[in-house]
Amino acid sequence: MKVKTMAVNAVIAALYLAVTALIAPFGFTNIQFRVSEMFNHLVVFNKKYLIGIVLGVFISNLLLSTLGWYDLTFGVAHSLISLAITVVLCKFVKGRVKGMVANTLVFTFTMFIIAIELKLALGFPFWFTYATLAISEFVVMIVGVPVMNALNKRLDFNRMIED
Amino acid sequence: MMEKMVFGRYIPGDSFVHRLDPRSKLIFVFIFIAAVFLANSTVSYALLLAFTLMSIFASKVRIGFLIGGLKPVMFLIAFTFLLHIFFTKEGDLLFELGFLKIYEEGLRQGIYISVRFLVLVLMTSLLTLTTSPISITDGLEVLLNPLKKVKFPVHELALMMSISLRFIPTLMDETDKILKAQLARGSDISSGTMKERIQAVVPLLVPLFVSAFKRAEDLAVAMEVRGYRGGEGRTRYRQLKWDWRDTTALLILLAVIVALWFLRG
Which ipTM value was assigned to this complex? Predict the structure, then answer.
């Protein structure tokens, strides 16, 4: 792995935690509204960001989550699986906005992993939990599309990790 | 800003639990999480609770501190408890007031799931309270070492995690500074309509990303000029040492699991 890739991913992971902790303090309940969820779209710009995002989720859940290690295992699994699906999908979907919309749909669908977590940990009803989680994830991520697009115009995410 | 969160919540100390090797603590917590699901009777849940309290005692972490940290979870536990009490309609009817009916099974399930959850949260917070994040990283790196055989980049991941942990306070300070700077300019992300709040997020994220990427760039250059060439042949400053405490802790856990198995209803 290139040194630059490692450094960028490590800093992105730290930024994920900082944003999770400071911008949206109401993130770890049934209504997930983490601004940092928008970071998931980074993978559309370059697949190398996958590591940084997953690491960010891992560290955030290790240090901040109230659900403890449930969040650690399921949260990381959820991000890893969804991002991997998006990376594959992006080979077929052309255009970044379309890629981010596909990413949103993937994350919305895979929310069942978190619904299983809450069912296991707290005995919440699966379908109701899945529905609420999927809706909130969809909202945060679809809102993230124009935000990340605007950020990319100024920053060029692909270039930031490539050269 | 940093006071708001008990960051990483690591409390340095010199107790039995503090002195355990991070590897044994990680293995302990992983096995414990699975073992909790063995409990299915009142006696087995009581054993789990007693064992957790004993572990807290052995860590010398103040109970008051732990309970303070549990406040956000308490709401979730209370919610779950009520959910089970009102929606499980099995067993004998214990209490009736109008449409409100509480059944024996509902009460039992409510208590069991709450205790299970409480025990899990307490045990996992005990790990983060008694182990510094950097020790957790070291422990994870060694435990994941076998994955190197399948070309999994264990060393690189551990290094990224250490770098990340080092940058968290820096980036949190920066996030806080930018938040305040934008606030002073009249931006507000905590009120207004959804659209206004989203629009307020962009001027916040742009400087944050710019500075984060700048730091990453500087770091990469610094690593390269210092001749960083991957994990091969590197020695360690922090050495992990497995001693009698670690073996004892795992043996006690094994005894608890055997007891749980026999106490199953």
Answer: 0.88
Among A122, A135, A140, A160, pick the best mutation site for testing chain B contact (most B Cβ within 10 A).
Answer: A122
Residue B113 CB neighbours (<10 A): 20
When CB atoms are compared, the residue of B128, B172, B220 closest to A21 is: B172
Quote the pTM value: 0.85
Contact call for A4 and B125, based on CB within 8 A: no
> Does residue B233 form part of some domain?
no
pLDDT tens track of chain A, all 163 residues? 789 999 999 999 999 998 888 775 444 444 556 778 889 999 999 999 999 999 999 998 888 776 767 788 899 999 999 999 999 999 999 899 999 999 999 999 999 999 998 888 888 889 999 998 898 889 889 888 998 999 999 889 998 888 6
Backbone dihedral angles phi then psi of residue B97, each to the nearest 5 degrees: -145, 100
Structural domain contains residue B205: yes
Contact (Cβ atoms closer than 8 angstroms) between residue B142 and residue B18: no
The phi, psi pair for B96, rounded to 5°, reads -140, 130
Crossing angle (nearest 10°) for helices B154-184 and A3-22: 50
Q: Do A51 and B165 touch (CB under 8 A)?
A: no
- Structure tokens belonging to residue B14: 């010199």
Per-residue pLDDT tens over the stretch A126-152: 999 999 889 888 988 988 899 899 999
Tell me which residue has tokens 């299983």: A116
Q: Are residues B117 and B179 in the same domain?
A: no
B121 and B220 part of one domain: no
Question: Inter-chain contact B160–A51, Cβ cutoff 8 Å?
Answer: yes
Number of domains observed in the structure of chain B: 2
Nearest to B163 among A7, A56, A143 (CB): A7
Task: Tell me if B119 sits within 8 A of B52, measured CB to CB.
Answer: yes
